[in-house]
Amino acid sequence: MKFTDLSAVDIVGIFPNYRTAYDAWKSKAQATVDNAGTRYFIVHLHRLLEPDAS
Question: pTM score > 0.90 for this model?
Answer without folding.
Answer: no
